[in-house]
From TrEMBL:
GO terms for biological process: RNA modification. NCBIfam families: PPR. PPR repeats lie at residues 75-109, 214-248. Keywords: Repeat. This is Pentatricopeptide repeat-containing protein. One of its GO terms (molecular function) is RNA binding.
């Protein structure tokens, strides 16, 4: 098209971005981003929404937020793209925060945003807020949306415990006979549901039959193994994920660390990783230390996080929650930050 001298328009560019995110072509997408500004589409909300979705799907959630934040006329597609983007990249707290802000601004959510935030509430064990969404689903007339039904059923399974596995099997059987058998979002929820009900082998069956696996599908299965301490399977799955060219996110690493039984083994795993260890991995180790109550290693992980991103206030909030839960003194970086703020 460009060789022929034909200029792309506001309909062409979002579709090219969608194609780039589908094959994780981050470099090509960035070139399209340059074209967008060169050709004056920086105020076109349709094109900008495409950029938000592109960066989020490629794991560049920080860049997705920058594009979203400067949008003057945010549509429901803008809000849904950034909420699902944060949920997709394992940042459930931020997804739920943005959803709350959207509701404060009286923006009516679509069913995709609700599915994303339901998953976020489940991931952070906020079942009360998850259940509050049920009324909103009925009010907005989304009660017949299949993806929402699966997400709500998953929430119920996580909450009721006893009998949840039978409910999960019933839902699996229903989906297997429906048009949604190959739906990525539905199957991801089923994997998560089975794992939390204690049947990781059924979760693996759903994973194996899912034809197009994105990072959320892979991460859900790795977390499933992690929840049950099946370290070898989790690490094998992570290796297969990398061979498939899928970029891991925060949830992926948390699942791996859970699978390593305790935080000491998690540190050994991080030390032997064949990729550069960034703030995502150290943050996941801090989460693992919180779960396994390893205070000393948790402080070390916190120090590494702060050394990489010293002015990110979100890390200090995370550390504060960690300290309050386990009644420990703040590490040096936490004290230094308080002094700078004071």
């Amino acid at each position: 098209m460009q060789v022929e001298g034909v200029s792309p328009d506001g309909f062409t560019l979002p579709n090219v971005l969608k194609a780039c995110s589908g094959v994780m072509e981050l470099a090509m997408g960035r070139r399209v981003h340059c074209q967008i500004y060169r050709r004056g589409f920086e105020s076109d909300v349709f094109v900008q929404n495409g950029l938000v979705a592109f960066y989020a799907k490629c794991g560049e959630i920080g860049k997705a937020w920058i594009v979203f934040d400067v949008l003057n006329d945010k549509t429901i597609v803008s809000w849904t793209s950034i909420i699902s983007g944060y949920a997709h990249n394992g940042n459930s707290m931020e997804a739920s925060r943005i959803f709350s802000r959207m509701r404060e601004l009286d923006v009516k959510p679509d069913w995709i945003a609700i599915v994303s935030v339901l998953r976020a509430y489940t991931d952070v064990d906020d079942l009360g807020r998850g259940k509050s969404i049920q009324g909103l689903v009925v009010k907005l007339g989304f009660e017949l949306e299949h993806d929402l039904l699966v997400a709500l059923t998953s929430l119920e399974c996580y909450d009721i415990g006893v009998g949840a596995l039978e409910l999960a099997r019933w839902m699996d059987d229903y989906i297997d006979k429906s048009l949604y058998r190959n739906d990525v979002l539905v199957n991801t929820t089923l994997i998560d549901m089975y794992a939390k009900c204690g049947n990781v082998d059924c979760a693996r069956s759903v994973f194996d039959r899912t034809p197009c696996k994105d990072v959320v599908v892979w991460s859900a299965m790795i977390v499933g193994y992690g929840l049950h301490g099946r370290g070898y399977e989790a690490i094998d799955m992570f290796s297969a994920m990398r061979r498939a060219g899928v970029k891991p996110n925060d949830v992926t690493f948390i699942g791996l660390l859970l699978a390593c039984n305790h935080a000491g083994l998690a540190y050994e795993f991080i030390s032997s990783m064949p990729i550069e260890v960034g703030v995502t991995v150290w943050g996941a180790l801090l989460s693992a230390c919180k779960i396994y109550r390893n205070v000393a290693l948790g402080e070390y992980a916190a120090e590494r996080v702060f050394s990489l991103e010293p002015f990110n206030a979100g890390h200090y909030v995370h550390l504060l929650i960690y300290m309050l839960r386990w009644h420990v003194e703040p590490c040096k970086e936490g004290r230094d930050f308080d002094e700078r703020k004071g």
